[in-house]
């Protein structure tokens, strides 16, 4: 079994609402969009056609009032157990995109996520920029993370990928497809890993952007997220929203037309 030593520090990653964060000759894109507060799906411009071509997702555009909770986990700050308690209490599924550092340092939490019905997604082993490494290196990053998850939990394969730092291009989208992965970006997020401002702030940031079909990105390193999560879930349920897993959405979306009712 291949083993790796993490030699770089874990940083506060994902600078969200940005464009073209790499040099022009890298051919890289930084995931981003213009936030709105009118409860509509945000416009992602030219990215929409790129994602469609490669079977990637950022939102459920069916118009149904569904919400898909996703978390990016690079390191543990002591709040994930609390978040899992809320998800269990409210019977809400989530997808946790994890790094190798997280799996190695928190195997019990990975096992708990899987045991309680959540999905583990691939956020790479060392959190590199995929657009500046080789196809072979990207494959090794993904397969090593998948192997690490399988070693500590009952989830033996991973189908969803969230690229480190939200950086991608058509080449990396294609490589992921060849390896059997589906890219999942997001349509709702805020800068939640920096200074904490109280659970009401996190609540307002998310509720102001909420829209049908949202794929919501949060980080479990945020105490505000942990404290606001139950309030958010309860309020959205009262507004008629249903929390579903990525499997509910992606598997249904990939079914041939006319088969969805089965």
TrEMBL record:
Keywords: Hydrolase
Domain of life: Bacteria
Classification via SUPFAM superfamilies: Glycoside hydrolase/deacetylase
GO molecular function, one term: hydrolase activity
NodB homology domain sequence ranges: 65-244
Top-rank EC class of the record's enzyme: hydrolase
Disulfide bond in keyword set: no
EC number: 3.5.1.-
Protein name: Peptidoglycan-N-acetylmuramic acid deacetylase
Naturally occurring in which organism (per UniProt): Virgibacillus natechei
